[in-house]
Amino acid sequence: MTAGVKWNWTPVALGVKLLGLTSWVSKQKPSPTLPNSANQNTGSTQSQRTGDSRATCRPKSHIVFLKTHKTASSSILNILYRYGESRNLTFALPVKKHSQLFYPLFFASHFVEGAGSRSLRRFHIMCNHMRFRKSEVEKVMPRDAFYFSVLRHPAAMMESIFTYYKSIPAFRKTPSLDSFLDSSWRTFNSSVSNNHYAHNVLAFDFGFDNNVAEEDLEESASAAIAAIERDFHLVLISDYFEESVVLLRHALCWSLEDVVSFRLNSRSQRTRRQPSPETAEKIQRWNALDWRIYLHFNTSFWHKVELLVGQEQMKREVSQLRGLQARLANTCLTDGGAVDPSRVEDAELKPFQYGAAVIQGYNLKPQLDGPTRTRCQRLITPELQYTNQLFTRQFPEVAARLGQGAKASA
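The structure assignment produced for this chain is given below.
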């Protein structure tokens, strides 16, 4: 999990300090106000500030998670999958075992398996990749659903995207991220398939136009921020992953055990390159819309930490969460942590590899007892395999037909 923050509680500086970009702080004026929905559906009570969030509110099970790209969202998806599976909740899964809800198309309700069924008119949890469109989401999710998403510093995110999506047209012939950024203003073609990954992809995932003229930037950013505040109860910041899942557990009235996790879909250190401050500034200019969205919600995130948890309680719970993760790693994992894919022993637990990234996986300890093995395996099951398992469990007849069709065409 990501390292904890130094508790100086200057929200905008925290977000920028990750990459040493303090010169940008004085140039930005993100709104310090909380989203309009700050007190809606969050169980904001004094008991939450003392850590006993379940004393006065009921755990939420109607949840919509907008899974954004390269933001630690696979780890959050795993948390939701484990919570739902252990409680026999239903998931709004992509039709015909697709891994995504037909991203990058705008989401439509008929992308969900069973959406037209009388027995499954509404689902408990929706959390696979989609391009957000709330009017369509509402057709398959309950009215009281809790909406949340996660952002990441655009510079760190862009470095990850460049590695992971190296094969898209915008990056394919570019030797380095700096080379792309130096030429993108002249050569970038937004109409080419998959090039949306290269430009303001956070805004794109939330359903906004990611190609905004400079003269329209401030108006577009303000409109996007207002819409996200209206539609989402909570926006997490993956740069502070532990603090984010603690805040999430308070908002959902869950336990710390419910949000403990191992990092999934995470790259090996040898394929990571921290952008220099100069490169980061280029990224922020190129992804100016994402940058403004990030600055605003980085500020509101820390306001919500104070509102729902409090500084001292957050420190305690982050420490407790790290202890839980360490004990689980000691119980579950042969190597104590993630390993390169070539060292993953169980072929069914190998993570999907894409682009120039090396995605790490895990090995379970042998001879775990039944319940322990089940819990440990859920923690390390990669996204594609877990989605397939849940689909087969929730729609066994459809899965059987799809399996027969695949055999027939082989």
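Interim note for the steering committee: The mean pLDDT is 86. The chain has one domain: 11-29+43-392.
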